[in-house]
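Re: How this chain folds, sequence and tokenised backbone to follow
Notation: Tokens come from a learned vocabulary of local backbone shapes, not from coordinates.
Start of record: The labelled sequence and token lines come straight after this line.
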Amino acid sequence: CGSSFAILVFDVTKKPEKLLSWMIAIFLNLILFSSYSLLFGGSTGSYLGKSGLFQGVFSHPNIMGIHLIPFLIIFTYYLSLKGKKKYSLILYLSILLIFCFIYLSGSRGAMSTLAICLIITFFISLFNKKYTTQIKKIFKNSFILLFVITIISIPFFDLIVNGFENFFYKGVLDEDYSSVEDVFFLSRGWRIMMSYENFLNSPIIGNGFGTPTEAFIGMNEYYNITYDPIFNLPISAPTEKSFFFIGVLEEIGTVGLLLFFIYYYKYSKIIIQNSETIFIVALYIYIFISSMFEFYYFSMGNAAFQWLWIGYCSKLVMKSKLRIV
């Protein structure tokens, strides 16, 4: 209900700046309460699993990184603005905290998503003169900072590599996780294979929403679907989709995936053609790419928070006359 109300407010609020200030207020609460749980919460601030990863105020460590990356993009954008230099220290500290929390949470999906997002955004900028100019300016303004960071990092190269390995393997590098393939199959690969098998049962129109495989049901009663006793309609969707495209194919088939591509292409075209800055394009792309590993695009609950960012991007491009075709 809270997410639905917030989305409706987007149409009432005329100034995107007010929407962003509300989002940043949420960020401050996330950081403050997560910091408190980290410093004083003991096991309360950690995921009580094999690796004991930091989750803060979220229900799972992965959600930490997924929710913080949009703020990273926004804060980096503010750092690029000349008129926001007086807030530079606060922005740098916020960015540092974001990276620290992502590392502690082991949100490798979020960092992989960010890397893919930046690559796609860069290629988009190559075909748009406005964005190409902005990218050149970003590289020019950040060159000295990147150079200094590189020089400082050289003596700590081994420590950085070890830290990266610990982050990638989530601190559980042992005989069970001896390769990238092992990490993939033990993390999400086995779910992806089950979703693919389900897709093969109905490749054209899919199996419907929240339909688990028989293997899922056999492993855990949690994956049993609850049906409405009157109309026999499914009222729970207890499956975890670990890869966006396989998840869409499993639920609505090839036809549904094709319709989604048409929708996303048209929506993306509007955002890319009408955005004033490459950062908003990157933010919009990130929201979708983040769903490749977590399926947030069609999820409710705290995952619906991502749709607020889509609303923010849409509100920004609607400030001027839209180019739709």
User: Anything to note?
Assistant: The chain has a mean pLDDT of 76. The chain has twelve helices and no strands.
